[in-house]
Write a structure and sequence with these properties.
With 404 residues, the chain is of the alpha/beta class. Helix content is 19%, strand content 26%. It is built from nine helices and 31 strands. The strands form seven sheets. Strands 5-4-1-6-11-8-12 form a seven-stranded mixed beta sheet. A six-stranded parallel beta sheet has the order 14-17-20-23-26-29, with no helix packed on it. The protein has a six-stranded parallel beta sheet with strand order 15-18-21-24-27-30, with no helix packed on it. A hairpin with a 3-residue loop joins β2 (39-40) and β3. The radius of gyration is 23 Å and the shape is elongated.
């Protein structure tokens, strides 16, 4: 009886979440942390969204593949309890590169990262493997996608979303038949034939995934990437591949402008993206903080204010994370302020993203009105902008700055 019990322990589907990217296009925001650990929406981090999607979809076994600056991300995920992923069999696991007897190396690409963790997947004897990226903001029912994968008898199903045709060359593009079957996959084509873009979300029948990852690892000419190598190889071999169309909100927050836009999409009476849907809870590891305080003379309009904030000045169309201080006479407009930011008396922050624990001294001006055509100003974490200093729109700083 005991032997039979252990033989039956398996997971129908395990998820592998790619979270090791440097996020170089976020510049100062990812100097010391992995992109999925970047703060978002006041009380979240980017990785909260795929993790929450997993547990909401009934997937309780998730491997998180880390590589670049993993310390803060590892600490944030911890034992997975905030996402109900602290399981005795399954749960969330941090998977970093390690030294093996046969060979060892850093993850060389998305496919190689998954290949190096094949033993983790096989431990759960899954029928299916879900591959996710850790840098997208969206809500998606992976269970519905898995049902579609089963219904078509696919070897691989790729989640896809329609994008403006002028932007299609930035994505992996799926060319499909009327039944959704894929006849061609083009990675960032110069002249795309369609606007159906891959979301970087794949469901594989496990045996097929293991086969093609092994073959890809043995190919010295491969760049070890899903979009460039594994998916085309499967298609060329005649494997059954289908698209799964998604029509909800989805944002790749890999750039400064897209991160700012996604934060602003949370604002308003009818936000473009609702993080407060009780039927699809976005879980996070919330910091310990007292209730937010808004002074009698403060002005707060169309903004998200998180726990622990102290607002005595003016905050308009902005997103403030926990324990942000805006002193009397200070102004914050069209901006994203991450945890612990202090904006002192008379200072102005306009069309900017400010990372954690940064101090903006009195009468300093950070950023410029976005209608003037200036870019988004970005301040890294743990720095000080001196009294009266001026930071131009589009300027990016990761060190203390006293002005010129």
């Amino acid at each position: 009886m005991i032997r039979g019990f252990f033989m039956q322990r398996k997971k129908e589907c395990v998820a592998m979440l790619l979270a090791g990217g440097q996020g170089s296009r976020l510049y100062a925001l990812t100097n010391n942390i992995a992109k999925p650990a970047v703060a978002f929406g006041g009380k979240y981090r980017i990785i909260d969204f795929p993790l929450s999607n997993c547990i909401n979809s009934g997937i309780d076994t998730v491997g998180v593949l880390t590589q670049y600056e993993p310390l803060e991300l590892n600490e944030y995920i911890g034992n997975g309890q905030p996402w109900d992923l602290d399981r005795s069999f399954g749960g969330v696991h941090i998977l970093s590169p390690y030294q093996a007897k046969r060979k060892s190396s850093w993850f060389e690409g998305t496919a190689n990262a998954i290949y190096q963790n094949m033993a983790f997947m096989k431990k759960y004897n899954p029928d299916y493997v879900l591959i996710l990226s850790g840098d997208h903001i969206y809500k998606m029912d992976y269970e519905a996608m898995l049902k579609a994968h089963k219904a078509t008898g696919a070897d691989c199903t790729i989640a896809a979303i329609e994008v403006p045709m002028k932007e299609a060359s930035r994505f992996g593009i799926l060319n499909t038949n009327e039944d959704g079957s894929i006849y061609q996959f083009e990675e960032k084509p110069k002249q795309p034939k369609s606007n159906l873009a891959s979301m970087g979300i794949y469901i594989f029948t496990a045996s097929k995934l293991f086969k093609y990852l092994t073959e890809d690892d043995e190919n010295p000419n491969s760049s070890k990437d899903f979009g460039k190598d594994v998916l085309p190889a499967m298609l060329n071999a005649g494997e059954k591949m289908y698209s799964y169309r998604f029509s909800g909100y989805w944002k790749d927050v890999g750039t400064i402008s897209s991160l700012w836009e996604a934060n602003m999409d949370l604002l308003g009476e009818e936000p473009a993206f609702d993080v407060n849907d009780p039927d699809w809870k976005i879980h996070s590891r919330n910091p310990l903080a007292p209730p937010e305080y808004v002074g009698n003379k403060a002005v707060v309009s169309n903004s998200l204010i998180s726990l622990g904030c102290e607002i005595e000045g003016t905050v308009v169309h902005s997103v403030l994370s926990s324990n942000v201080v805006v002193e009397e006479g200070a102004e914050v407009v069209d901006s994203v302020l991450m945890a612990g930011t202090v904006v002192k008396k008379g200072a102005k922050v306009i069309y900017s993203i400010v990372d954690e624990n940064t101090v903006i001294e009195g009468d300093a001006v950070v950023g410029e009105d976005r209608e003037q055509g200036a870019g988004i100003a970005v301040l890294g974490r743990n720095i000080t902008i001196g009294a009266g200093a001026k930071v131009a729109g589009g300027q990016i700083l990761d060190k203390d700055y006293k002005g010129e």
